[in-house]
């Protein structure tokens, strides 16, 4: 338990965590997982498998609060009052990693658990759209190409699109899906303007505002962290568009239909190959300091590689499985408990 002591943690938290590691009673006797709503269904499935496959292990508690909020909780410190695991639908930021370090969370294990896609969808029989990242950017950016967004219909965005009003239900600012939307779709549309693309090298703050800021006039509606709520709203309004993780589209194919991006449909195969523009990796962050102290954490971690593979349990849950070499690399990280460094995030 020397790792905990050298961090200079609050005495009570350190004592409780140390007691847990030594087999005595503690304030927490099961794994605590928080973070991404996209990773949530997969993490919950692994939690159930952990209990089923390991006698005497309590089912890990999995919460969905969003990638940003989850990482913030994770980085608050070491001890039973803080989560053991943070899930994220985008990679941890260097600034977040540095916050972790400042708070004593110095040994972090990063695992890429799979792939997902930012799916754009409409109700079956609803609005018919074929979009590009530029169309999306012009439709939902607050200040596309530096000018106030006045577009009200999809036809205002692109003359080839229908004159239906723009109404997009999407992820909130705390969501990793929102971060991925900004970096994979909005920024791609924004950078089609050479002057704005050049702005990234001269004024990063302005570039970020222009390229990633989303309009606030109710044409883009923050759907909250519950992706199923966005699914419900889109299914009930055939003129609306929803943005959420691919697994939610796959699970609701009876009521929703995917919208093409650059002519590519959001399908398992297209996301796995990277041909769909919204493909992104999914991550899990684990506190190495908690591995010996929290009952079931090692077992929970070791269940993930068992569920990967094309015949693994997670594919059946809607996860897009990583290529074989990525699976092996991350299984090795789990086996060796390899920790993340700041240089890897620069």
Word description of this protein:
- The chain has 346 residues and is of the alpha/beta class.
- The protein folds into two domains: 2-116 and 281-345, Periplasmic binding protein-like II (D-Maltodextrin-Binding Protein, domain 2); 117-279, D-Maltodextrin-Binding Protein, domain 2 (3-Layer(aba) Sandwich), CATH 3.40.190.10.
- The protein has 16 helices and eleven strands.
- The strands form two sheets. Strands 1, 2, 3, 4, 6, 7, 8, 9 and 11 form a nine-stranded mixed β-sheet that branches.
- Strand 1 (32-35), helix 3 (40-53) and strand 2 form a beta-alpha-beta unit.
- The protein is globular and about 60 Å long.
- The model is unreliable at 1-16 and 18-25 (pLDDT under 50).
């Amino acid at each position: 338990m020397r790792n905990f002591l050298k961090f200079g943690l609050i005495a009570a938290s350190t004592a409780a965590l140390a007691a847990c590691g030594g087999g005595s009673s503690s304030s927490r006797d099961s794994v605590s997982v928080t973070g991404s709503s996209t990773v949530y269904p997969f993490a919950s499935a692994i939690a159930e498998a952990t209990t089923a496959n390991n006698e005497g292990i309590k089912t890990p508690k999995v919460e969905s609060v969003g990638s940003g909020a989850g990482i913030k909780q994770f980085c608050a410190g070491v001890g039973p009052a803080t989560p053991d695991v943070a899930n994220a639908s985008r990679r941890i930021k260097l600034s977040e990693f540095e916050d972790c370090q400042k708070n004593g969370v110095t040994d972090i294990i990063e695992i890429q658990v799979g792939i997902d896609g930012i799916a754009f969808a409409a109700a079956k029989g609803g609005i018919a759209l074929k979009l590009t990242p530029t169309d999306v950017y012009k439709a939902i950016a607050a200040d596309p190409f530096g000018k106030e967004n006045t577009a009200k219909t999809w036809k205002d965005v692109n003359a080839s699109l229908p004159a239906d009003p723009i109404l997009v239900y999407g992820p909130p600012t705390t969501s990793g899906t929102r971060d991925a939307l900004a970096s994979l779709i909005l920024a791609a549309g924004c950078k089609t303007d050479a002057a704005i693309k050049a702005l990234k090298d001269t004024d990063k703050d302005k570039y970020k505002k222009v390229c990633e800021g989303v309009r606030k006039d109710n044409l883009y509606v923050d759907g909250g962290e519950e992706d199923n709520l966005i699914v419900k709203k889109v299914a009930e309004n055939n003129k609306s568009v929803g943005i959420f993780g691919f697994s939610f589209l796959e699970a609701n194919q009876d009521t929703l239909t995917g919208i093409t991006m650059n002519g590519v449909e959001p399908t398992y195969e297209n996301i796995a190959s990277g041909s769909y523009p919204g493909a992104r990796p999914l991550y899990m962050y684990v506190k190495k300091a908690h591995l010996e102290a929290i009952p079931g954490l090692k077992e929970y971690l070791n269940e993930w590689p068992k569920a990967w593979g094309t015949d693994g349990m997670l594919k059946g849950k809607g996860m897009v499985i990583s290529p074989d070499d990525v699976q092996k690399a991350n299984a090795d990280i789990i086996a060796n408990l390899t920790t993340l460094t700041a240089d890897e995030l620069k």
